[in-house]
Specification:
Largest sheet: 6 strands, parallel
Strand content: 5-15%
CATH architecture of the largest domain: 3-Layer(aba) Sandwich
Oligomer: single chain
CATH class of the largest domain: Alpha Beta
Structural class: alpha/beta
InterPro entries: HAD-like_sf, HAD_2, HAD_sf, LarE, Ni-pincer_cofactor_biosynth, PGP-like_dom2, Rossmann-like_a/b/a_fold
CATH topology of the largest domain: Rossmann fold
Number of domains: 3
Helix content: 40-55%
Protein name: NAD/GMP synthase domain-containing protein
Distance between the termini: 31 Å
GO molecular function, one term: sulfurtransferase activity
Number of helices: 21
Organism: Nocardioides aurantiacus
Pfam family, one: HAD_2
Length: about 475
């Protein structure tokens, strides 16, 4: 939950506020200093109007101001630069938005509705430190405003204060008041929030890893498990972390040496047990629950190994996006066998894995997705070692052929549809791939076709009837 102030934070209130003051002053026969009053927007109306009217006339003036306001202030008031993007950034992280403002609540809602601001809750007529109680009640994690009194509200709630310079306060005033961050305007907020959320999740990840004391990481060599392994080393030290890379027909041979080299560069012990998922009838049958049999085999091998070697848990590289992907039958199977998912538990997404990996200097930060070889075989076609070897050979030869022709290649998949191969490559190489299909045929396929949509992770799931059955 992220709290935002309204006036001069999400909206530029000056034009509409000034127009309303002009009408009010004319009705009251008072020459209100409009420029002065609009230069300090944020405080409640009684504080703004009090110095310019007899005390007994202020309540009526406030009531009249609020009556005039909808017709004079709502339409001419624009959103500030970056306001929509700032709210969208909160939503992108799965968050909610709370508007806490000194403005009369009905008028605040009019601005939200007129501008289409993506706000979940509106709380008006709250000022200064009193905003802290509202922020606490709604569980806000930070508060964004433009005034020193917004800083006061964040401090009262015990949450970080983010200040923008779109109001009347200077950076020096805001910093003196104790704000944590100063931005020119809300345009800089999405990038700041990305880093703020990532750092919070990394701290949560480190704490969960430290709680386990000794961790064996199920390490495939991919970006997720590589990042988890590095995070575990940072949290626990290399002596209390192990990397277990399961060797079997489903792991491409090309992945083995790079995985070992990476793990050894971190100073951890590397274990390479054999797994025998091919011995499981359900795995070979290759129905929608194939991954459940694979993960069952993996954890039934790694669980006892971890116990024998003194590791408290086996941790997998499942991230937060994996859990939202909708079709991951292996996740439940691993959880049923005691595996922990630190990245998922910390809320870390694939994008955040790559961002943090890059910041840490990990060579895997931009490594393409590398699912197991069995994921290339259409559901219902039996998984065999020779079939997987054919797929691996075809992918390696196609990649080499494209690179020899001078093309930079990121993703290549050869989908085994039986005796036909469907080739998926980077979108910009779809046309070029059609000139390199002989190498795929030479690997053992009778016919080859190129998918015009290019590479898509998990595309084989689209061919599975009734995927809900396998969840």
């Amino acid at each position: 939950m992220v709290g935002f102030d309204l006036d001069m934070t999400l909206i530029d209130t000056v034009p509409g506020f000034a127009a309303t003051l002009e009408v009010l002053g004319s009705e009251l026969g008072v020459d209100l200093p409009v420029a002065e009053l609009t230069g300090n927007l944020g405080p409640p109306l009684d504080l703004l109007l009090g110095p310019h009217l007899p005390a007994d006339e202020v309540p009526a003036a406030i009531a009249r101001f609020r009556e005039i306001y909808p017709g004079t202030a709502v339409v001419p008031t624009p959103a500030t630069a970056g306001a929509a993007e700032a709210l969208a950034a909160v939503r992108r992280h799965g968050g909610r938005t709370l508007l806490v403002t000194g403005k009369f609540t009905p008028n605040a809602r009019l601005h939200v509705e007129h501008l289409g601001l993506d706000v979940d809750v509106v709380e008006g007529e709250v000022w200064g430190g009193a905003k802290g109680e509202v922020l606490r009640r709604h569980g806000a994690h930070l508060y964004v405003g433009d005034h020193v009194h917004d800083v006061e509200g964040a401090q009262a709630a015990g949450v970080p204060s983010v200040s923008v310079l779109t109001g009347g306060c200077t950076a020096e005033q805001l910093r003196s008041a104790g704000t944590d961050v100063v931005l020119d305007d809300l345009s800089g907020f999405p990038a700041w929030l990305d880093d703020f959320v990532l750092q919070a999740r990394l701290e949560r990840l480190a704490a969960s890893l430290r709680a386990h004391e000794r961790v064996l990481v199920a390490f495939s060599g991919g970006a997720d498990s590589a990042f988890l392994l590095a995070a575990a080393v940072r949290a626990l030290g290399p002596d209390r972390v192990g990397a277990a890379t399961a060797y079997s027909s489903s792991l491409p041979l090309s992945e083995r040496d790079p995985a070992r080299t990476f793990a050894e560069s971190l100073g951890v012990r590397v274990l390479t047990p054999q797994t025998h998922e091919m011995d499981r009838e359900g795995y070979r049958a290759n129905a929608g629950d194939r991954c459940a049999f694979c993960k069952s085999e993996l954890l039934e091998v790694l669980g006892p190994l971890a116990a024998a070697e003194g590791y408290a848990v086996v941790a997998t590289g499942t991230n937060a996006d994996d859990a939202r992907a909708g079709f991951r039958p292996g996740i439940a199977a691993a959880a049923d066998r005691g595996a922990v998912t630190p990245l998922l538990d910390a809320g870390i997404t694939k994008e955040q894995v790559r961002s943090a990996s890059r910041a840490w200097g990990l060579p895997t930060w931009d490594k393409p997705a590398a699912a197991c070889l069995s994921s290339r075989v259409a559901y219902g076609i039996e998984i065999t070692p020779s079939r997987l070897a054919r797929v691996e050979r075809a992918e390696a030869d196609l990649r080499a052929s494209l690179e020899t022709a001078g093309h930079a290649v990121r993703d290549v998949r050869v989908r085994d549809l039986g005796e036909t191969a469907r080739v998926e490559v980077d979108r910009d190489l779809v046309d070029e791939a059609a000139h390199h299909l002989d190498v795929v045929r030479a690997a053992g396929f009778d016919a080859v076709e190129v998918d015009p949509l290019g590479f898509r992770s998990g595309s084989m799931n689209a061919l599975l009837p009734d995927p809900e059955r396998w969840r």
